[in-house]
Design a protein that fits this description.
The chain is α/β, with parallel strands linked by helices and 277 residues long. It contains 11 helices and 11 strands. The chain folds into 2 domains: 137 residues, D-Maltodextrin-Binding Protein, domain 2, CATH 3.40.190.10; 97 residues, D-Maltodextrin-Binding Protein, domain 2. Helix 3 links the parallel strand 1 and strand 2. The two termini are 35 Å apart.
């Protein structure tokens, strides 16, 4: 294991301070490469460290991408900061170290673009997800969204509406289905999609709304009851962008080029994402 360097320390320190402050307050076109990762590994002369702030729902897929990138670029160390896209957005706004931002929602990325915090021309929509209703694997009495309004559900787990993209989409879905008022008193709000998933998989919530990709990672502990109608919410699009303040632009460009290779596309598809590029 490599010794924790100063940039990693700054990221961890910033996230810790940011979390405490939030709790207190709450009281043209890219050319596709034909090289495979193994071919890149023979040719890469890149070195250094790249800090990537990425949506929590990408944790498992990015773990595989990290392994593949390291094989191709052995002298580059990737450091990931996973969290809700809203929290990551605010961290970048407040000066947290970050080179690349991958958001689970366009709203959070666009906010940074509007503040001139994303390098010009680097915003790109790369993936799309679906929102699903899940229940604990052994629960059999919930089969539709309408069941959320009955006494079959005591606690409904949702992402926080303002800062968590899956929460934003969940609100749109519940509003569209005219269920928001009926489930308001039984709803509990999580800091990110992984917390929603945890509450349902451990039986601490009777149902929850997460991304299809997250449900797939714990298929032995939760089951998908129904996929939300596509016309009930904004497309769950994942944009990527390079943080304007980066001092590692070459590495950032290389990473984004890498995730658009066919082998990495296959990883995203395996986890249930729809690839948009």
């Amino acid at each position: 294991m490599k010794t924790l360097n100063m940039r990693k320390f700054l990221v961890m320190l910033f996230v810790a301070v940011f979390s405490v402050s939030v709790l207190a307050g709450c009281g043209g076109e890219t050319q596709e490469t034909e090289n495979t990762p193994n071919e890149n590994a023979q040719q890469s002369e890149l070195s250094g460290e790249l800090l990537i702030s990425a949506a929590a729902s990408m944790k498992e897929s990015m773990a595989e991408v990290e392994t593949m990138f390291n094989e191709a670029n052995p002298d580059v160390e990737l450091t990931f900061n996973f969290g809700s896209s809203g929290s990551l957005q605010q961290q970048i706004e407040q000066g947290a170290p970050a080179d690349v931002f991958v958001s689970a929602g366009k709203k959070q990325m666009q906010a940074l673009v509007d503040k001139d915090l994303i390098a010009e021309g680097t915003y790109e929509e790369i993936l799309q997800n679906e929102v699903v209703l899940i229940v604990p694997a052994d629960k059999t009495d919930i089969t539709t969204f309408d069941d959320l309004t009955t006494d079959k559900v005591v606690k409904l787990a949702l992402g926080e509406f303002n800062s968590v993209p899956v929460g934003q989409y969940s609100k749109e879905i519940l509003d569209s289905l005219e269920l928001s008022a009926a489930v308001a008193d039984k709803s509990v709000y999580a800091k990110d999609v992984k917390e929603v998933l945890s509450w349902v998989s451990t039986g601490n919530a009777d149902a929850g709304m997460v991304y299809a990709t997250d449900a797939k990672t714990v298929a032995d502990k939760v089951k998908v009851v129904v996929t939300a109608p596509a016309d009930a919410y904004s497309p769950a699009v994942y944009p990527v962008g390079i943080v304007k303040a980066t001092e590692n632009r070459e590495l950032a460009d290389a990473f984004i080029d890498f995730i658009k290779t066919d082998d990495v596309k296959d990883v995203f598809v395996k986890y249930g994402f729809t690839v948009l590029y």
